Amino acid sequence: MEKSTEQEDILNLLRSVKSGKLTPEQVIEKLRAEPFSDLDYAKVDYHRSLRQGMCETIYGKNKTPEQIAGILSDMRKNGARNVIVTRISQTTADFIAEQNIPMDYHVIPQLGIALPGEKRQQVGNIVIVSAGTSDMAVCEEAALTAEILGNKVTRIYDVGVAGLHRLLARLDVIIEARVIIAVAGMEGALPSVVGGIASCPIIAVPTSVGYGANFEGLSALLTMLNSCAVGISVVNIDNGFGAGVVASRINRMKGV
């Protein structure tokens, strides 16, 4: 079978190591910078997994179903598996299925896991705590992201500060966590409370859930940024995916 240009390039790099022209470290640096597929409307990065430990994620909002299907078709040809596709509607998910592209679609977070393959062994202990049921879409985006990256995830939902006894009833789980993702809208007080209890790193996620003065999550974001509890970092409003990735990297650190 004829070798692709990418395969020939990699083989030439390996031959250079064998001949002594390049060191293994120099080859790794070269591989970090290339290659990608140019689809005109998207440039799909195929060495992101080498650089970051996970393949490229597709942010689906404002992309057409045809564009998403085209990217996934190209990724399938290049051997990608367990591709996370965020912020897509049921209609888009149905269109992708019609193109014979396998994908597990999750309605609440509007997230799909396309081209499902072998799952990583789940390790560690990430605990996701939400203030209310209305925050569940962001929570599930974080949870599914962390799980596909090989992390054990425990969900504790609807334990906000309006009924603090609900949170304290799960104190044993919180204390045993390696990383906590605390998700809240409204005034965004939950991460501060959790930060006063837990000794592990906490990733706070403000959500756009709330009435008018919540300013679509801005009030929760500012509360979390101004928390007096230590050990809290904050991601952007509604960014469950980002929180899941950061939590995974902390949870899977060697020696942690």
From TrEMBL:
It comes from the Archaea. PANTHER family: PHOSPHORIBOSYLAMINOIMIDAZOLE CARBOXYLASE-RELATED (PTHR43064), SLL1489 PROTEIN (PTHR43064:SF1). It is an enzyme of class 5 (isomerase). Residues 124-256 form the PurE domain. The gene is purE1. SUPFAM superfamilies: N5-CAIR mutase (phosphoribosylaminoimidazole carboxylase, PurE). GO terms for molecular function: 5-(carboxyamino)imidazole ribonucleotide mutase activity; hydrolase activity. Gene3D superfamilies: 3.40.50.1970. Keywords: Isomerase. It comes from Candidatus Methanoplasma termitum. InterPro entries: P2CMN_synthase_LarB, PurE_dom. Its EC number is 5.4.99.18. GO terms for biological process: 'de novo' IMP biosynthetic process. The keyword Isomerase applies. This is PurE1 protein. It holds the Pfam family AIRC.
